[in-house]
Recover the amino acids of this structure.
């Protein structure tokens, strides 16, 4: 019967020990190197600077998106108004006849037509209290908008709606007692009265 040989035990040499030690040190060296490299990058290029560059290069969607356009001020009412001489009307009214009053203005009447104004020697559209502080003739031939009335020169002699400034096709703006703007465009001119189309905007 053959004699069994004992298994040869591996020899642990000096080179083997060095290889094991080196293998265990490599991860530590790599980790330390990355840590050192990260510190150097932070010193050369701080994180705050990097964030600012990124923000400058790529605007946020909120900054790049324009806000909604302001909505137009709606029209309150439109209509045709026959204005006999010396009758005042309330352009803020929703009554079909614009609540006329003859011979007196009351607290809310905005405009009247006078077929003859002695101090002007002419016909005219008259504003509050028989003055011109809230009425203004518009230049040009139209069409006019609320913006024209908002920028009109109320109260100036050069903008008084008188004579040729209230001829056919001419426009006059009125700033009402309630703070609205109204546009009157002359469509007819008879002896003792005029007819206008009226557009009144909300405030």
């Amino acid at each position: 019967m053959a004699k069994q040989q004992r298994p040869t035990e591996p020899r642990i040499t000096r080179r083997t020990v060095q290889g094991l030690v080196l293998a265990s040190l490599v991860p530590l060296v790599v980790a330390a190197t990355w840590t050192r490299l990260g510190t150097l990058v932070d010193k050369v290029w701080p994180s705050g600077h990097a964030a600012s560059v990124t923000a400058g290069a790529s605007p946020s969607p909120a900054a790049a998106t324009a806000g909604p356009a302001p909505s137009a001020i709606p029209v309150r009412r439109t209509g045709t108004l026959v204005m006999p001489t010396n009758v005042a009307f309330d352009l803020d009214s929703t009554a079909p006849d614009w609540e006329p009053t003859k011979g007196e203005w009351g607290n809310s009447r905005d405009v009247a037509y006078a077929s003859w104004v002695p101090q002007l020697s002419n016909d005219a559209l008259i504003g509050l209290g028989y003055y011109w502080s809230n009425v203004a003739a518009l230049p040009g031939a139209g069409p006019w908008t609320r913006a024209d009335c908002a920028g009109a020169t109320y109260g100036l002699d050069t903008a008084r709606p008188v004579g040729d400034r209230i001829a056919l096709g001419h426009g006059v703006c009125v700033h009402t007692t309630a703070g609205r703007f109204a546009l009157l465009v002359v469509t007819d001119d008879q002896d003792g009265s005029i007819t206008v189309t009226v557009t009144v905007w909300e405030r």
